[in-house]
Design brief:
This protein is 33% helix and 15% strand. The protein has 169 residues and is an alpha+beta fold. It has one domain. The protein has a 4-stranded antiparallel β-sheet. The protein is globular and about 40 Å long.
Length: 169
């Protein structure tokens, strides 16, 4: 992998901050910056539970069971991130223009946004969900407002760590 990208990925891994998603109290998002950067969503939810949930509330939302099925080819190749015995694992990662807004979308959903909408699934509330993030401004190597570079880093993270099972793109 390119040395600049490797350096940036190491910097992101080192500076990653995590906060547990609290479906009953929205204050968990208070310290997430409203600026661009990268994020990931982790859980300890067994994949069989994720496969069994109902259709999403909104058409724009990620259809979790269908996405897991669509990723079966990558899973068969051993490219995806898999849950290890009772531990959390990354199920989604991405880049965002506004990290705080993206955290809210993944928790609460938005009818027109491609997101997880985790709060819509009662069964998922019984598991641990974590939102981890790094603001681009915290990284020395990258201009914070460059979306193309943020996308390259998002894909580089997947190449380094594995493909999250809820990411189609």
């Amino acid at each position: 992998m390119n040395q600049v990208l490797n350096t940036l990925l190491d910097e992101i891994d080192h500076k990653l901050r995590c906060v547990e998603i609290n479906f009953e109290d929205r204050s968990w998002r208070e310290n997430i910056p409203s600026e661009s950067g990268w994020y990931l969503v982790k859980t300890n939810t067994p994949i069989d539970v994720l496969r069994s949930i109902e259709q999403p509330k909104y058409e724009a939302h990620i259809n979790i069971p269908d996405t897991i099925q669509a990723m079966s080819g990558l899973r068969a190749l051993g490219i995806t991130i898999e849950q290890s015995v009772n531990n959390g694992y990354v199920v989604y990662n991405g880049e965002a223009k506004n990290l705080k807004a993206r955290a809210r979308e993944h928790e609460c959903g938005h009818e027109k946004t491609y997101c997880l909408g985790l709060g819509d699934y009662e069964v998922l509330r019984g598991y641990k969900w974590t939102f981890c993030y790094v603001a681009a401004s915290w990284c020395k190597t990258l201009p914070p407002k460059d979306k193309a570079l943020r996308l390259a880093v998002e894909q580089g993270w997947r190449a380094k760590h594995g493909w999250p099972i809820l990411c189609k793109k």
